[in-house]
Amino acid sequence: MSAATRALSRFWRPTSSDVGGPPPLPVLTCACCALLVVAAIFGNWLAPYSKEAVSLGASLLPPAWESGGTMAHLLGTDQLGRDILSRLIAGTRISLATAAAATLVSGAFGVLVGLVAGYVGGFVESIAMRIVDAFLALPFILLALALVATLGTGFGNIIMVMVIANWARYARLVRSEVLSVKQRDFVTLARIAGVRPFVIMLRHVLPNVLNSVVVLAILDVGRAIILESSLSFLGVGIQPPDVSWGLMLADGRTLMGFAWWLTTLPGLMIVFAVLSFNSLGRWLHVRFDPRGQL
Amino acid sequence: MPPPDNSPAAHAGDALVSLSGLRKEFPARRMSAFGARRKVVAVDDVGFEIRPGSTFGLVGESGSGKSTIARMILKLERPDAGEVSFDGRSLWQQTPAQERDYRRNVQAVLQDPYGALSPRLKVCDIIGEPLSAQGRGRSEIDATVSRLLDTVGLGKDAGNRYPHQFSGGQRQRIAIARALSVEPRLLVLDEPVSALDVSIRAQILMLLREMQERLGLTYLFVGHDLAIVRYVSVVVGVMYFGRMVEIGPADDVLRHPRHPYTERLVSIASMRQALGTERLTGELPNPLAPPSGCHFRTRCPYATQRCIDEAPPLREWGSGHRVACHYPLTRSS
Amino acid sequence: MLLEVRNLSVAFGPVSRPVRAVAGVDLDIGAGEIVGIAGESGSGKTTLCAALVRALPRAARVSGDIRFAGRSIHALSREELRQVRGREIAMILQNPMTSLDPLFTIGNQLGEVLATRCDVPAPQLRGRELELLRSVHITAPEERLRQYPHELSGGMRQRVLIAMAGSMAPKLLLADEPTTALDATIQEEILVLFRELRDLRGTAIAIVTHDLGVIRRICDRIVVMYAGRIVEEGPVAAVFAAPRHPYTRALLASVPVLDGDRVQVQAIAGQVPNLADLGDFCAFADRCPMAIDQCRAQAPPQTALGQQRRVFCWRADEMS
After folding, report:
1. 3-class DSSP state of A83
2. Furthest-apart CA pair in chain B: how many Å?
3. Residue C206 belongs to what H/E stretch?
4. C14 in contact with A at a CB cutoff of 8 Å?
5. Inter-residue contact A167 to A113 (CB < 8 Å)
6. Distance of CA C166 to the CA centre of its chain
7. Tell me: the pLDDT tens digits for C111-170?
8. Which residues of C have a CB under 8 Å from any CB of B?
9. Which tens digits make up the pLDDT trace of A16-53?
């Protein structure tokens, strides 16, 4: 490892010469994720304007640091005069809520299938894993479009579409972890003690696979944000008057040449959010798994 | 500490566990999609008895089938042929209530102290789990756990801690406490000290022997180290490649080994001869294609044509000592 | 003297509270000697082994001097170190299952060693490979060359590794728990191979193990380590017959050995101390039946006992 890589890796975890203090980068990513969550929860009170406040007189104002910009609208306005900053904050709530809900539901379902398939084994496992394989093979965007065309848009439907796309990854991960936990002696000894299979699954197997599930879930939040933004961009995700970063991208697309802030700023938010959660997930992965590599 | 009494009178009575004609095969991975399905015979026609209050030591190297036998006794594997009986009843003809009883009567301590304890449970919950699976009450469980922690030499406050806070030897003590919690009539110990440090092994072995003598437990001790197995056992059975080659009272088998393989093991364990004076040439047999007749013939210095043609059965050699060899050794050590 | 180690210390962890895996070790190994380094987990024996070839993790802090064939190991450049490792010092690690590449045949892997390290020209490779396999008494060598590692038993794999290690006729072979995963009867064969390597090629061998039986059977000299320090050293027969350190004595008594048909065992109470809690006092004091106040106040110095024996104990003179 060169000196540069070594310095970089010290960002992630302390080496022997560090005395106290946590490594800097994970603290940074935690702070970013926390910032996003705070914005999502308290956004309505933090935003200077309502996300829907139309003000045609103040349309297409550039951000405050450009010529023509004003401090009243820090990040500018869109073609209907709506404040970009407020809409970004409002979008945070929607995007994170959608991502969190989708992740939780697909996680719960996927873990359940993976746990039972992995522990019971045999015929049940074979069938379950073939179904999982089938779901993993489906192309997401086409699937989403087809489902939305059938079921219509709406918050609940979007969550369902994302769950259908995502649950199989949890199932596959959990099943392989369960297979390895099943081999360990404490599971064998529980069988010898006469503990019932259902209890073994809940008490012994599940807690020991949760680490990986949590890591996958956090990484999935980033993925879900991108999925939701893509759907909204295509017009089949979040609908107006709700705000989503993807929707803002779609709105500003035709004006990209004149008003760069309409698309660049939401795009940067997506990047920022995904990077933050991905970094957090990667750091947790390294932390939980002693052999984990960067 | 006086050595265990191995006179037949001390262990009179019906056998607690009885095995006969036991056979177990495992499918081996096929090398090609079109190859015949190959199998490994892990246990081949094995039978013996364990008497209550006795300690039976099953010695063999890896691949000898000793662990498979232990797993069958623990009902973790089903034999392909033969019988295992407990208290006269076959293990695979039990009603659910009898099976539940069996789970109380037979417990185990396994090799890996780091895998034996569930990492997310407190030690008191780990030790109390078999009792709770039997439906006992909270207060009874708590009292038993306290008492057991004392018996195995761990402090009472150990119960509130988690496995990762304990060393290998201490974890094995916790595993022993758990196994004893339901007062089992048979304790199966599969290489319980092999993964421990040398000086800790002695601690655990002494604890096991002391408890066996004090509580009158019945042990099946499975191991590859002859000296370790002897320390805890009164009857010894030697396995080689799935077959029992010699069985009998420990002092007799170790003083007068009749099978060439046993003799070799005893010689190495007592460090009698200098390195390289008596060599066992020849390779280990291939588990997928074991030698015909006697499995040991490829390495046995006394093998003849008869050993190639005919597998020797276990034959009585006097006072409970049985050998599977066409030409049992007659000289005493 | 082939290998001279002076005041070697290896520490891990934070500087304020270091974990001293090896502390102040002096060791000599002469050409053609077979030395056994005995110790349990936490004794530092494996760390010592790794330090000898600079194979420690990056986070390790090493101090002291290691001289091999007159050259300081630490002063070698990466290229020089690479030459020394494999040609002059060979290593055999604990688990033979993971040391061989599962994707290549035995013949392939042997050929690679012969071609790169011994510069054997291609036409002679197969002949040399067969020769190597025969030198470690592997039967049917032609067939083995075509086989993959998973098709061989543990004992055979270990023999292949010994063949690879010995192919260069190294001056020193470091073997870390070479027989632990193997059956008793196969262990014998491996030990015989080690002795042949020394007798025929003059290779010095350092065997790191917790198995005192192995050391007794093959080693000339034994070095006993406890909690990162050497506590006793001397010729095997002498040390086993009359150990002069309480730990050595207790360790020997704790190993079950078959005597006729009886086995005696005596346990050592307590456990190995936490390596981060050590300082200038005897690490064995808490468990030692002969400990006195001085043992806890100051680390015992070396006491030379003549005939290449030395021991680190305040009361060494009283134990005989």
Report:
1. strand
2. 67
3. strand C204-209
4. yes
5. yes
6. 16
7. 888 888 777 888 888 888 888 888 887 877 888 888 888 878 777 888 888 888 888 889
8. 40-41, 137, 139, 153-156, 183-189, 191-192, 195, 210-213, 216-218, 250-251, 253-263, 265-269, 271-272
9. 334 445 567 778 888 888 888 888 888 777 777 777 77
